[in-house]
Amino acid sequence: MTSTFNLLDEPWIRVIRLNGEANEVSLLTLFQDATDIKSIYGEVASQDIAVLRLLLAICHRTMDGPEDLDRWREYWQEPELLGRDAAAYLERHRDRFDLRDPERPFFQVAGIHAASGKISDLESLIVDVPNGNQFFTTRIAEGLNSIGWAEAARWLVHAHAFDPSGIRTGAVGDPQVKGGRGYPIGPGWTGRIGTVSVVGGTLERTLLLNTVVCDGKTAGLDGVDPARDLAPWEREADGPAGSPALEPTGPVSCYTWQTRRILLHGDDERVTGLFLGNGDKTTPQNRYLVEPMTAWRFSEPQSKKLKSPVYMPRKLPADRAFWRGLSTLVAQLSPKITVKDAGDVTRYRSPGVVSFYQELMRRRIVPAGGLIPLHAVGLEYGSQEATVTELVDDVLTLPAGLLDPESKRLVAVVHDTMEQTEQVAAALRSLAGNLDRAHGGSPETASAARTRAGADFYQVIDERFPRWLASLDGADPHVARDQWRGLLRTEAWRQQEELASAVPGTTFAGRGEGKGRMDVGKALFFFRRALNAAVPAPARQDAQ
Q1: Of 427, 413, 449, which is closest to residue 524 (Cα–Cα)?
Q2: Helical (H) or strand (E) element with 207
Q3: How far apart are CA 438 and CA 441, in angstroms?
């Protein structure tokens, strides 16, 4: 008799409970105990968000959409209801959650194989060992020979979400295979976006706050038909061939998109290898209609190509803190741009989960005050998206008032503060470049000096701005603005002194002739003028 590993019963999801205890739980236990669990806490943050999206797909199907806010509100008002209904839903599909089912294994294709019989090592499955190069991992080499089925289940979910692009093993029966190879179709869908989720006080609250209503209004999921937005375990099992033309029908299909065709290999205790081939290809244009967990940016090249406004998912840059993308999260902060043949369009579209929270505030289902933690997770890929180079994992706590369309003063203060912060950064970059010129540096060394100065400035600001932003809850916006201006000036002067004191003595003599001459005095004069223009000194503020 073939052994089973049913995800409904076997512990495989790592969680932290409210009392701080770490556990591995099954799907049934997770939903039954969701009010006692704080969060998912697996090997890496990208694994956590991949599992969370799987859980959200289950929530959407449990709640039949939900098709309207009244249906959603029933679950919000009765905390135990989600656990009971999710358990009943999962039981109806019990046979499709067996990781080792010989005919329809969960998130896999039974019997899939290469003509050569080749299977891949576990390095292909575990993202913290890209291409065998231990980048994120704390795992010792012996741990790569085999892993338990519970861990394999977590990485299986992760592979469909985040697997890098590149040539994959060709499956027998896949017409796209050439010479035994499956040629690149891009990374997993979740790897193509920068995920943003709203964090609740318990896992149950987190799940509900991110299970957006599919009515085309509250989160912009226009045209989603919950009856058509099915999960893989509700459809016929996939065959070896992926589909290049398949399109997502809603959040459930996005959260469970089968980017790869996979089959785990091992014995009763351990997984030792896998088949890993191409699955269903995705395209990112205008998927804001079905994908609610990312911000979207207007793409002029794509819009020209398709002759209509096109929004692309905004990936999370690894070199910029999450708060610096605040204008992509809050609709009131997003600038308008004028586009030929399209008129005025919004540069960014907020994530559907943020728009949904905004609607819950408007309906007074959640408080209009307080703080809203947002969690951003994404992977940055290297050349041709074939390797993983960076993991982005950041939390930003927003004052709820920032999502209130009536809070115009607060929005204006945050907008102006962000602009002033970047202007101060620009002044410090310019100072560093000018000091390098005064020393006789080249354009290349001046550019490097500007980059270092900006990075040094934001290393401090990236720690302080989120705290300042959170302090706006209940505060007078203009008092808070003045406090931030004072901090900016203090930090700018401190870094100016460090830059000026680090130059060699020869820099004071300067370099160049006429208007092109640069010396320390001139560099400091330009800096002080730029700083006072960006952040007026207190005396000038009082005079206004």
Answers
A1: 427
A2: helix 203-210
A3: 7
For 382, half-sphere exposure in the C-beta direction (CA atoms, 13 angstrom radius) is: 9
Encoded tokens for 512: 């160049």
Residue 233: DSSP 8-state: G
Question: What is the SS3 assignment for 451?
Answer: helix
Cα–Cα dist 399/395, whole Å: 13
Residues whose CB is less than 8 angstroms from the CB of residue 168 and which lie 6 or more positions away in sequence, other chains included:
181, 182, 184, 260, 276, 277, 278
494 CA to centre of own chain: 34
Rounded to whole angstroms, the Cα distance separating 428 from 310 reads 36
Per-residue tens of pLDDT for the chain, all 544 residues: 468 999 999 999 999 999 999 999 999 999 999 999 999 999 999 999 999 999 999 999 999 999 899 999 999 999 999 999 999 999 999 999 999 999 999 999 999 999 999 899 999 999 864 444 555 554 554 567 899 999 999 999 999 999 999 999 999 999 999 999 999 999 999 999 999 999 999 999 999 999 999 887 777 787 789 999 999 999 999 999 998 889 999 999 999 999 999 999 999 999 999 999 999 999 999 999 999 999 999 998 999 888 889 999 999 999 899 999 999 999 889 888 877 766 788 899 999 999 999 999 999 999 989 999 999 999 999 999 999 999 999 999 999 999 998 888 999 999 999 999 999 999 999 999 999 988 888 899 999 999 999 999 999 999 999 999 999 998 999 999 999 999 999 999 999 999 999 888 777 777 877 777 898 889 999 999 999 999 988 754 443 3
Judging by beta carbons within 10 Å of its beta carbon (0-12, 13-18, 19+), is residue 195 exposed, middle or buried? buried
Q: How many Cβ atoms sit within 10 Å of the Cβ of residue 300? A: 15
pTM exceeds 0.90, yes or no: yes
Q: Which fold has domain 408-543?
A: Topoisomerase I; Chain A, domain 4 (1.10.132)
SS3 content of the chain, % helix, strand, coil (to 5): 45, 15, 40
Q: Which of 172, 189, 348 is nearest to 253 (CA)?
A: 189
Q: What is the DSSP string of 73-88?
A: HHHHHSTTHHHHHHHH
| Short-list 217, 492, 184, 506, CA closest to 352 | 217
DSSP symbol at 6: B
Domain residue extents for the chain? 408-543
In sequence order, the 6+-apart residues with CB closer than 8 A to the CB of 385 are 164, 165, 166, 184, 186, 187, 191
